[in-house]
């Protein structure tokens, strides 16, 4: 009897999780190089209170990394736009690492989007700065499609997304990043 109840409860949890994931995927905006030109103001399209735009770019080992694989599976997803050559990014990364260390087990995932052009520099910076989260880059520098989709004009930049796919904040720094994440995870 107890085993049957446990199996039923596990089945209900899986069903609920799958339904939540489907709801998020139905709202995802997919913008690519062709449709990007049809949107007059990408920054406004990806502003706070809008549904996030999916980004799919190569990861460090050449695998495709997609933001949508993390939204809905986590309470919060932070898309962090950065580059190894960006001094302000490197100075901000300790705060991002701290946020990850404090809140990853409580539902935060970070996805790094690098505006690097040199793969070796990108990979070295990931290791040197202690970034343990998924990373992606098309190695096109300022022409990075992910950055273009979000209207990124300067880095560091970030976008905070809730579990329903809604953008809830942009460009959080330092203690503001930590405090906003803490408030959202209460």
Describe the structure.
The protein is of the alpha/beta class and 186 residues long. It has a single domain (2-184), classed as Glutaredoxin. 42% of the residues lie in helices and 19% in strands. It contains 7 helices and 9 strands; from the N terminus they run αβααββββαβαβαββα. The chain has helices at residues 2-27, 33-36, 42-45, 87-103, 119-129, 145-149, 174-184; strands spanning 29-30, 53-54, 56-58, 64-66, 76-82, 108-114, 135-136, 157-162, 167-170. It has a 5-stranded mixed beta sheet, with helices on one face. Strands 1-2 form a two-stranded parallel sheet. A two-stranded antiparallel ribbon has the order 3-4. β5 (76-82), α4 (87-103) and β6 (108-114) form a beta-alpha-beta unit. α4 runs parallel beside α7 (174-184).
């Amino acid at each position: 009897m107890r085993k049957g109840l446990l199996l039923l409860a596990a089945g209900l949890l899986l069903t609920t999780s799958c339904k939540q994931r489907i709801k998020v995927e139905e709202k995802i905006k997919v913008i690519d190089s062709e449709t990007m030109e049809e949107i007059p103001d990408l920054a406004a399209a990806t502003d706070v209170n809008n549904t996030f735009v999916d980004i799919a770019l190569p990861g460090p080992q050449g695998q495709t990394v997609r933001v949508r694989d993390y939204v809905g599976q986590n309470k919060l997803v932070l898309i962090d736009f950065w580059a190894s050559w960006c001094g302000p990014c490197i100075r901000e990364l300790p705060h991002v690492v701290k946020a990850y260390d404090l809140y990853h087990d409580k539902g935060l995932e970070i996805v790094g989007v690098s505006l690097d052009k040199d793969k070796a520099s990108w990979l070295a910076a990931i290791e040197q700065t202690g970034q343990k989260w998924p990373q992606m880059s098309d190695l096109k520098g300022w022409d990075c499609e992910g950055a273009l989709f979000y209207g990124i004009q300067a880095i560091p930049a970030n976008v905070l997304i809730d579990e329903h796919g809604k953008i809830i904040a942009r460009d959080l720094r330092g203690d503001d990043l930590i405090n906003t994440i803490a408030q959202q995870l209460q």
